[in-house]
Amino acid sequence: MSGAAPVLSVDNVVKFFGEHQVLRGISLDVAEHQVVTVIGSSGSGKSTLMRCVNLLEVIDDGVIALDGRDITDPRVDPDHVRRRIGVVFQAYNLFPHMNVQDNITLAPRVVHGVPRAAAVERARELLARVGLEDKADEYPDRLSGGQQQRVAIVRALATDPRLLLLDEITSALDPELVGDVLRLVRELAEQGMTILMATHEMGFARQVADHVCFLDQGVVLEQGPPEQVLGDPVEPRTRQFLARII
Ligand code: ADP
Ligand code: MG
Fold this sequence. Notes:
Blueprint: E1 8-17, E2 20-30, E3 35-39, H1 46-53, E4 61-66, E5 69-70, H2 78-82, E6 85-88, H3 100-110, H4 116-129, H5 145-157, E7 163-167, H6 175-190, E8 195-198, H7 202-208, E9 211-216, E10 219-224, H8 226-229, H9 236-245
Parallel strand pairs: 3-8, 3-9, 6-7, 7-8
Antiparallel strand pairs: 1-2, 1-4, 4-5, 9-10
Helix pairs in contact: 3-4, 3-5, 5-6
This protein binds adenosine-5'-diphosphate (ADP) and magnesium ion.
Adenosine-5'-diphosphate (ADP) binds next to helix 1.
């Protein structure tokens, strides 16, 4: 395997739901330590793309490779792939019947076989890093939406994923809670985490992303550095989208 293989490579991916072709030949790469944001209207296929990468959906054509290895080959064990990918969704990420610490330590202990004491120590360390060290014993419903999302990110990090998938993680939050969550993502980016992130936060994409992909009706219509795609887009539909959202 070449050392230069991107962490994630999505090549000509097609996905149908029944007759509806939701992804129509999507190609994008995420290199190590890069933050790639996926933008586009509701229904353009962002979540479906994320779900395909995490093997929650079976693709109809194309190839998805993690570290140069085809993960969409039917012989690949999806659980094995998912262990290497951390995922945070828009909402309802945490198990409501478990406290914060148990939420974070579950996968390391059960899936990765980390001894309980070590998993707890790591959870405490990560919580401290995001300023939530005093919340280890709380249940999710006692936390604000922003705190819940930061715990969800911590939980995703607890297994040392190769790739972090973030699907509109601030969309369900009250506006005043968005900043704390985005700040955390920015810190992770600065620390070198490899991230694929669907977002409507254009200011964030402009400041933090290395690369922006504009998805339109299941196609990457335009992609490039944020200053180009967000600042001086070539495609009229990108311009229309940005004019509506900003
Ligand atoms: P986005 O995340 O950009 O809003 P989605 O990936 O959620 O877009 O949806 C893209 C399209 O696929 C939409 O038309 C949506 O209705 C459709 N879709 C998503 N999931 C399913 C599903 N499980 N079954 C049928 N259609 C779906
Ligand atoms: Mg979505």
